[in-house]
Amino acid sequence: MNERSRLPVRNLSSRLVWLALAVFSVRAGGQSPASGASGASSQDLSIAIQELRAQVQELRATITEMKSEAAEYRAQSDELRKEL
What we know:
Elements (H helix, E strand, L loop, with lengths): L2 H26 L13 H42 L1
Helix pairs in contact: 1-2
Protein backbone atom coordinates (compact mmCIF):
# COMPACT_ATOMS: atom_id res chain seq x y z
CA MET A 1 0.00 0.00 0.00
CA ASN A 2 1.46 3.35 -0.97
CA GLU A 3 1.59 6.49 1.17
CA ARG A 4 -1.16 8.20 -0.87
CA SER A 5 -3.70 5.55 -0.01
CA ARG A 6 -2.89 5.61 3.71
CA LEU A 7 -3.45 9.34 4.18
CA PRO A 8 -7.27 9.28 4.00
CA VAL A 9 -7.35 6.55 6.63
CA ARG A 10 -5.20 8.60 9.00
CA ASN A 11 -7.35 11.67 8.43
CA LEU A 12 -10.53 9.66 8.99
CA SER A 13 -9.13 8.23 12.21
CA SER A 14 -8.35 11.67 13.58
CA ARG A 15 -11.82 12.90 12.59
CA LEU A 16 -13.44 9.93 14.33
CA VAL A 17 -11.48 10.71 17.50
CA TRP A 18 -12.55 14.35 17.29
CA LEU A 19 -16.19 13.34 16.81
CA ALA A 20 -16.05 10.95 19.77
CA LEU A 21 -14.59 13.70 21.95
CA ALA A 22 -17.24 16.16 20.79
CA VAL A 23 -20.08 13.72 21.51
CA PHE A 24 -18.64 12.96 24.94
CA SER A 25 -18.30 16.69 25.57
CA VAL A 26 -21.94 17.37 24.70
CA ARG A 27 -23.10 14.60 26.99
CA ALA A 28 -20.80 15.73 29.81
CA GLY A 29 -21.40 19.44 29.22
CA GLY A 30 -17.68 20.10 29.12
CA GLN A 31 -15.14 21.41 26.64
CA SER A 32 -14.86 20.18 23.10
CA PRO A 33 -12.03 20.56 20.60
CA ALA A 34 -14.22 22.65 18.28
CA SER A 35 -16.15 25.05 20.46
CA GLY A 36 -14.13 25.73 23.58
CA ALA A 37 -15.70 25.96 27.03
CA SER A 38 -19.29 26.02 25.79
CA GLY A 39 -19.29 22.41 24.58
CA ALA A 40 -19.91 21.22 21.04
CA SER A 41 -23.19 22.27 19.52
CA SER A 42 -25.41 19.98 17.52
CA GLN A 43 -24.45 22.04 14.48
CA ASP A 44 -20.75 21.27 15.14
CA LEU A 45 -21.58 17.58 15.36
CA SER A 46 -23.72 17.73 12.23
CA ILE A 47 -20.89 19.34 10.28
CA ALA A 48 -18.42 16.76 11.61
CA ILE A 49 -20.76 13.93 10.61
CA GLN A 50 -21.18 15.37 7.10
CA GLU A 51 -17.41 15.65 6.72
CA LEU A 52 -16.95 12.08 7.93
CA ARG A 53 -19.54 10.82 5.46
CA ALA A 54 -17.70 12.58 2.64
CA GLN A 55 -14.42 11.02 3.78
CA VAL A 56 -16.04 7.58 3.95
CA GLN A 57 -17.22 8.02 0.35
CA GLU A 58 -13.67 8.98 -0.66
CA LEU A 59 -12.31 5.92 1.10
CA ARG A 60 -14.83 3.69 -0.63
CA ALA A 61 -13.78 5.13 -3.99
CA THR A 62 -10.12 4.58 -3.09
CA ILE A 63 -10.83 0.99 -2.04
CA THR A 64 -12.72 0.33 -5.29
CA GLU A 65 -9.84 1.80 -7.28
CA MET A 66 -7.31 -0.30 -5.37
CA LYS A 67 -9.37 -3.46 -5.94
CA SER A 68 -9.42 -2.74 -9.67
CA GLU A 69 -5.67 -2.19 -9.68
CA ALA A 70 -5.15 -5.41 -7.73
CA ALA A 71 -7.27 -7.33 -10.24
CA GLU A 72 -5.20 -5.88 -13.10
CA TYR A 73 -1.96 -6.87 -11.36
CA ARG A 74 -3.27 -10.39 -10.76
CA ALA A 75 -4.22 -10.71 -14.43
CA GLN A 76 -0.79 -9.49 -15.51
CA SER A 77 0.85 -11.87 -13.07
CA ASP A 78 -1.19 -14.78 -14.41
CA GLU A 79 -0.18 -13.91 -17.97
CA LEU A 80 3.49 -13.72 -17.00
CA ARG A 81 3.30 -17.09 -15.26
CA LYS A 82 1.80 -18.65 -18.38
CA GLU A 83 4.62 -17.24 -20.48
CA LEU A 84 7.22 -18.74 -18.17
